[in-house]
Amino acid sequence: MEDAVPPARIKQEGMPTVLIVEDHFMTRWSAAQYLRAQGYRVLEAVNFTEALGLANSGTRIDVVFSDVELGEEQSGLDLAAWFSKHRPYTPVLLTSGADRNDSPHAGGRPAAFVRKPYDLTQVGQMLRSMLERR
Amino acid sequence: MDLDNPRTVMVLEPDVIVRAQISDFLRECGYRVIEGVDAVDVRAICEAGVSIDILLAEVHLTGASSGFELAQELRQTRPEIAVILVSSIHNVVDKASDLCERGPIRKPYRSDDILRRIQLLLERRRQMT
């Protein structure tokens, strides 16, 4: 199972894969549409359990874009903490519409964050720079 | 609906691994694919004015409506959508293969390969839990 492989040793084949985790259907769909149009391969998950199911299946994920609020189960913060621990080379971008006084921490480190309502162009740029920085 | 030139498929499948694999496969065959998990997602898409040519739906949906109920509802409200119901992984792979036979891009995949891939990923998930 692919795990903590340093980026330099990953041969980039084709466009990167982004995992979008979002429980509101239309929000998820419009982000997915946009990122596919940018050339990403997009995987969609509606909650923490689905996201983990995909992460553990061995299917390739290069970057994660997740809402913090994911319905009844664990949150996007828990997801970011999981990735930080098990997939340290996979960057996670979090988003939230909730009031926040400080930026979210996931696993003790500040997580990349964009506030809702977000501009998809800005999200695209953030994901790209996160991928380049790996 | 242009059955000779179908372009948009909505895949309704509660199991994320099956949904992701089938959706990937259909996209590689040239379809635009919208992913959903329940009837509410389909209604949201229809209300948004997005046109769907084909709905590929699992009968055992989460939420209030089953695939059968949704199919009946759509026959009244959206008769132009071709509804394909599936009830097993073999089913959904077969139907996806059929769609790809008629799809915009000829893909050299055989349905056996897709099925095997899904089964492998599901087995891997089962070992994790």
Topology record:
The complex is a heterodimer of chains A (134) and B (129).
Chain A: E1 17-21, H1 25-37, E2 41-45, H2 48-56, E3 63-67, H3 76-86, E4 92-96, E5 105-106, E6 109-110, E7 112-115, H4 120-132
Parallel strand pairs in A: 1-2, 1-3, 3-4, 4-7
Antiparallel strand pairs in A: 5-6
Chain B: E1 8-12, H1 16-28, E2 32-36, H2 39-47, E3 54-58, H3 67-77, E4 82-86, H4 89-101, H5 111-128
Parallel strand pairs in B: 1-2, 1-3, 3-4
Helix pairs in contact in B: 1-4, 1-5, 4-5
Describe this structure in words.
The complex is a heterodimer of chains A (134) and B (129). By secondary structure, chain A is an alpha/beta fold. Chain A has one domain (14-132): Rossmann fold (3-Layer(aba) Sandwich). Chain A is built from 4 helices and 7 strands. Chain A has helices at residues 25-37, 48-56, 76-86, 120-132, and strands spanning 17-21, 41-45, 63-67, 92-96, 105-106, 109-110, 112-115. In chain A, the strands form 2 sheets. Chain A has a 5-stranded parallel sheet with strand order 2-1-3-4-7, sandwiched between helices. The longest helix of chain A has 13 residues, at 25-37. Chain A is globular, with a radius of gyration of 14 Å. Chain B is of the alpha/beta class and 129 residues long. Chain B has one domain (8-128): Rossmann fold (3-Layer(aba) Sandwich). In chain B, 50% of the residues lie in helices and 16% in strands. Chain B is built from 5 helices and 4 strands; from the N terminus they run E-H-E-H-E-H-E-H-H. Chain B has helices at residues 16-28, 39-47, 67-77, 89-101, 111-128, and strands at 8-12, 32-36, 54-58, 82-86. In chain B, helix 1 packs parallel to helix 4, helix 1 runs antiparallel to helix 5 (111-128) and helix 4 runs antiparallel to helix 5. Chain B is globular and about 40 Å long. Chain A binds chain B through residues 1, 25-26, 29, 32, 41, 43-46, 50, 53-54, 56-59, and chain B through 16-17, 19-20, 23-24, 34-37, 40-41, 44-45, 48, 121, 124-125, 128.
